[in-house]
Amino acid sequence: MEKENCFNQVVYPLTKKGEIVQWGILSIFIFLVPMIIPQLIGVIFGKASWIATNSQYVVGTIVNTVLIVAGINVKGWKQIAGLITLPSISAIGSGLIFKSASIYTVYMIPAIWLGNFALVYLYRKLSVQKKVNYILTSIAAILLKVAIIYLCFRLFTLVTVIPGTGKIFTALNLSMGMNQIITASIAAVIGFGINLGFCKRQKAEV
Q1: What is the domain range of residue 142?
Q2: In the predicted model, is pLDDT for residue 203 greater than 70?
Q3: What is the DSSP string of 187-198?
Q4: Total tally of structural domains belonging to the chain
Q5: 146, 116 in Cβ contact below 8 A?
Q6: What does the alpha-carbon distance between residue 129 and residue 131 come to, in Å, rounded to a whole number?
Q7: What is d(CA 5, CA 10) in angstroms, rounded to the nearest whole number?
Q8: Would you say residue 138 has pLDDT above 80?
Q9: Which ranges of the chain does DSSP label H, i.e. alpha helix?
Q10: pLDDT of 146-174, one tens digit each?
Q11: Which of 53, 55, 59, 146 pairs with 96 at a CA distance of 20 to 30 A?
Q12: Nearest 5°: phi and psi at 132?
């Protein structure tokens, strides 16, 4: 019952139609971002530019922001599960973010899903249900997500499923570690503003 209540509590309750619209928009957005943003950045700044070759920072920030919004205002575990799984499928399938390392990131999909779930769940459990301070919730959620993803990555390198040396290792080591911290932290700042917006709108309607 506690889990059910957790997944059905949100910051800003919507009508049934509103919930469907919100989930639909977020789902389409989070699926398309890994495919469209890297190409868009390449067109605007040039394919050889730093931001184009490091598009994960932009894509990761946007994806994490959507996941945080899901954590605070998307009702239902099935809806949340959809948002958790879509971005990694899109990113790896398009091959635009991880490029030559994309084949190896396939092994990381379950870990990425689990890390995303941990991020969303802690926001829902701590910030929404237990009313824990947003900053403390963000720190806990980000650290848990990164720990899950990075430890799984290191495990795969130890059993040689993923190369433990070379350019691919260096790229994935950064992508599954520090980049996760950076993008999730920026997303938490953006999410703070969105959370405030939800709260103010709710109070205005009371």
Answers
A1: 2-205
A2: yes
A3: HHHHHHHHHHHH
A4: 1
A5: no
A6: 6
A7: 10
A8: yes
A9: 2-8, 16-45, 50-53, 56-73, 77-94, 102-105, 109-122, 134-158, 166-175, 178-205
A10: 999 999 999 999 998 888 888 888 888 99
A11: 146
A12: -70, 145
